[in-house]
Write a structure and sequence with these properties.
The protein has 313 residues and is α/β, with parallel strands linked by helices. The protein has 2 domains: 197 residues, NAD(P)-binding Rossmann-like Domain (Rossmann fold, 3-Layer(aba) Sandwich), CATH 3.40.50.720; 91 residues, UDP-galactose 4-epimerase, domain 1, CATH 3.90.25.10. It is 39% helix and 17% strand. The chain has 9 helices and 13 strands. The strands form 4 sheets. A 7-stranded parallel sheet has the order 3-2-1-4-5-6-11, sandwiched between helices. The protein is globular. The N and C termini lie far apart (40 Å). Bound molecules: nicotinamide-adenine-dinucleotide.
């Protein structure tokens, strides 16, 4: 089995490369390192692993037969996509188009890493896959949300009109080792602030909710979906919802930090609630998250303790 992982040098992509190699796949990681780093894949010295530096908004061809394409390439954290708005739109549009073209040429199965952000600032909670979302297309976050919505639309079009075997995973907030310490997402932000004794910055009053999935659970869900025969989008995430303020308190407790909580303005169009309805994943994939928040956080904190602070210097 030969698999391509675009965005394979990023946080999730590198864990997926690890997982596929363990499953016996030959893995080709394609990444332009715009937000990723080869540090995430330098431990992969298997002769079944290849890394190609390439921007997937430009076409790519392979002589050998490819069986599976996991398309994860895209800036993913708000700091990244707000700094890289055009690249984010291009990778969602042209990148997805190019990889679907490759899937068509190769007869490969294609999986799109979509996001809970397609639901925008949702008016229903939890969010089932049938919910169409509440996205501001012209707000600053629209570059990411709409890129992914377009990517879903073109994936379904290739499925319907060209008969390509496709999968769409809607990923909810995921955390774990190899997140960048300064990528601006709430988990690394709070952990780094707590570890360095700085104030913990909560946006708004902290009543907005999130649900956090540990990376190993997510990767298992992605793999099961790819190997299933289900074409419609499937939510993969942890339904254990908590407020951002509660989450800050958990981080302070686990790290034993003396940090204080301070409040700043909410970013524009920040979702007020976020919780996956995972009934479909349970029923179709027999999947549900296994790693408890405190266990996952301890592993992540250990990683940041070992590597994070050094990396930042
Ligand atoms: N981590 C999450 O909580 C989360 C939630 C929802 C969706 N996702 C999706 O999962 C995927 C991976 O996210 P992540 O958290 O690992 O982010 P990440 O930034 O760590 O990884 C993204 C990778 O894609 C690469 N990339 C970006 N544009 C590229 C291009 N044009 N050509 C080649 N490579 C390119 C980057 O260099 C990076 O290595 C993304 O598609 C993201 O939208 C992630």
């Amino acid at each position: 089995m030969k698999s391509i992982v675009t965005g394979g040098a990023g946080f999730l992509g590198s864990h997926l490369c690890d997982y596929l190699l363990e499953k016996g796949h030959e893995v080709i990681c394609v990444d332009n390192l715009i937000t990723g780093t080869t540090k995430n894949i330098e431990h992969l010295n298997s002769d079944r692993f290849t890394y190609i530096r390439h921007d997937v908004t430009k076409p790519i061809y392979f002589g050998d037969k490819i069986d599976y394409i996991f398309h994860l390439a895209s800036p993913a954290s708000p700091i990244d996509y707000l700094e890289l708005p055009i690249q984010t739109l291009k990778v969602g549009a042209l990148g997805t188009y190019n990889l679907l073209g490759l899937a068509k040429e190769q007869g490969a199965r294609f999986l799109l890493a979509s996001t809970s952000e397609v639901y925008g600032d949702p008016l229903v909670n939890p969010q089932p896959e049938t919910y169409w979302g509440n996205v501001n297309p012209i707000g600053p976050r629209g570059v990411y949300d709409e890129a992914k919505r377009y990517a879903e639309a073109i994936t379904m079009a290739y499925h319907r009109y060209h008969g390509i075997d496709t999968r769409i995973v809607r990923i909810f907030n995921t955390y774990g080792p190899r997140m960048r310490v300064n990528d601006g997402r709430v988990v690394p932000n709070f952990i780094m602030q707590a570890l360095s004794g700085e104030d913990i910055t909560v946006y708004g009053d902290g009543s907005q909710t999130r649900s956090f999935c540990y990376v190993s659970d997510l990767i298992e869900g992605i793999y099961r979906l790819m190997m299933s025969d289900f074409t419609d989008p499937v939510n993969i995430g942890n339904p254990a919802e908590m407020s951002v303020l509660e989450f800050a308190k958990v981080i302070i407790e686990i790290t034993g930090s003396k940090s204080k909580i301070v409040y700043e303005n909410l970013p524009v169009d920040d979702p007020k609630v976020r919780r996956p309805d995972i009934s479909k994943a349970k029923e179709l994939l027999g999947w549900e998250p296994k790693v408890e928040l405190r266990e996952g956080l301890s592993k992540t904190i250990e990683y940041f303790n070992d590597f994070g602070l050094l990396q930042q210097q």
